[in-house]
Amino acid sequence: MLQYVIWDVDPEIFHIGSFSVRWYGLLFALGFLIGMQIMTHIFKKENKPVADTDSLLIYMVVATILGARLGHFLFYEPDVLFKNPLEVILPPYRGLASHGATVGILIGLWLYSRRQSSRATGQTFLWVTDRITITVALAGACIRFGNLMNSEIVGRPTDVPWAFVFINNPEYEKIPRHPAQLYESLSCLVVFVLLLWFWNRYKERTPRGSMLGIFLIWIFTLRFLYEYLKENQVAFENNMALNMGQILSIPAVLLGVYFLIRSYQNPVVLPSPERPKKVRS
């Protein structure tokens, strides 16, 4: 039986002068790079213009970072946002909120789909969002593992045998805690496999909005539950019945239920292949 995990991993891989490469940044970038390859595969399988994945990547990167940064300051540090809004885009880029990233991605994909609508490529908002959930789930697994490498977003004290002692975080040093980052990372990995299997089975017959619904329900239901095992991120949450992460997860789950129900009320009907006409002799 495990006697706790002593976690003393250095968050920095290497540095050259003042420039450093950290595990978190590498994993963050890796999520986008692998996601790009997955989307390229999906576009090929469903006969969509592969060149569009370059544009889609730009939309996703900008929407994710801006949404996550704005979400962090809006939900957790609104006073900083209103006093110094430039801090959203200035380094050191501390603070990224997954709920904000979700909103940002949905808005970014809506803008992307509007651009595609005039080109008759079939990349509607729900077509794109369904498939992008596969890559977002994988990116979420990478990012949460990056949080583990940073010894941040830690869980509450516990005596379970798989508890982690975060040596490199002086605020929580020498106290065994739930590895909440690992819980969320593994949960994202599970839904990544589920969504990839779901798409691989149905492809163009995938009910529009079904994968988005599954993703939102899975991720944010578990996020709501995991918050009971995590330390609050900001002090004002200590006096709340539900913390900010839980409050923001409720509408996300409800939105997922809406999309899932809607997807099966409006099934995809593919055109029947034309039969060859008989030639009269």
TrEMBL record:
Belongs to the Lgt family. A 1,2-diacyl-sn-glycero-3-phospho-(1'-sn-glycerol) binds at R144. Pathway: Protein modification; lipoprotein biosynthesis (diacylglyceryl transfer). The chain crosses the membrane at residues 23-44, 56-76, 96-113, 180-199, 211-229, 241-261. The keyword S-adenosyl-L-methionine does not apply. This is Phosphatidylglycerol--prolipoprotein diacylglyceryl transferase. It comes from Spirosoma taeanense. One of its GO terms (molecular function) is phosphatidylglycerol-prolipoprotein diacylglyceryl transferase activity. The lineage of its organism: Bacteria, Pseudomonadati, Bacteroidota, Cytophagia, Cytophagales. Its EC number is 2.5.1.145. Catalyzes the transfer of the diacylglyceryl group from phosphatidylglycerol to the sulfhydryl group of the N-terminal cysteine of a prolipoprotein, the first step in the formation of mature lipoproteins. It is found in: Cell membrane. Keywords: Cell membrane, Lipoprotein, Membrane, Transferase, Transmembrane, Transmembrane helix. The keyword Lipoprotein applies. It is a multi-pass membrane protein. It holds the Pfam family LGT. GO terms for cellular component: plasma membrane.
